[in-house]
Amino acid sequence: MPQLSDYPGCPKTDLTLGLPGGAAAEVAKSGVKRGFSDAVDLKLSTTSDDDVSVSTPPPSKAQVVGWPPVRSYRKKTTMTTKYVKVAVDGAPFLRKVDLETYGTYQQLLSAFEDMFTFLTICNNVVSERKMMDSANGIEYVPTYEDRDGDWMLVGDVPWKMFVESCKRVRLMKSSEAIGLGIS
Fold first, then answer.
1. Which residues lie below 8 Å from residue 120, measured CB to CB, with a gap of 6+?
2. What is the C-alpha end-to-end distance of the chain, expressed in Å?
3. Whole-prediction pTM
4. Which bin fits 45, alpha (ψ -120 to 50), beta or left (φ > 0)?
């Protein structure tokens, strides 16, 4: 092992648990434990009884900007959102849609048409809400699961009630939606 004399001109460094520099470092080097008055600088000694030193209260802690860290999706808590998953029978993927961004069923169906490019809205009857896969000739009916776990047709209840009660949306094949009131 090299000795101190092997490195001329280099100061000797010791590893200590105290703060670097200052009197605390010298106290730690001497092997003597620090006392409370060394660790905390309290000015408790006064020159006279009349002149009592009153410590000023610490300044109020202002919250540091950006602390605690908040995710960007949490920052938007002022906006109400109602995300639901949308599944299409036969499609191997799901999509998420925010129901609060739409105001009517027709806007929602148009969004489905944009999300799933193979689907188009059937305009046979105005009140009928169906979508068609023109390549395969398959009709899809938009259904949703409500709070109670029942599957219902999209459009059976007023829009606001639908937004409040919808848990997920499924574009079901018309042949499977016979029990839901589709003729």
1. 113, 131, 132, 134
2. 93
3. 0.53
4. beta
Under a CB-based contact definition with an 8 Å cutoff, are residues 27 and 14 in contact?
no
Scan for tokens 């080097």, then name that residue. Answer: 29
Question: What Cα–Cα distance (Å) separates residue 150 from each residue in 12, 47, 90, 169?
Answer: 79, 82, 21, 12
- Distances in Å between the alpha carbon of 5 and those of 14, 44, 109, 129? 16, 47, 85, 92
Over the stretch 128-172, which tens digit does the pLDDT of each residue have?
A: 677 877 778 888 888 999 999 999 999 889 999 999 999 999 988
What are the start-end ranges of the E strands in the chain? 83-88, 94-98, 119-121, 131-133, 138-145, 151-153, 168-173
- Quick one: tokens of 38? 């060394």
Residue tagged 């009884």 (tokens): 49
| Tens digit of each residue's pLDDT (9 = 90 or more) over 96-127 | 999 999 999 989 988 888 888 777 777 655 55
Residue at token pair 């949308």: 86
Q: Which residue has the tokens 């574009």?
A: 171
Q: Report the candidate in 150, 137, 160, 147 with the shortest Cα–Cα distance to residue 181.
A: 150
Structure tokens at 93: 């993927």
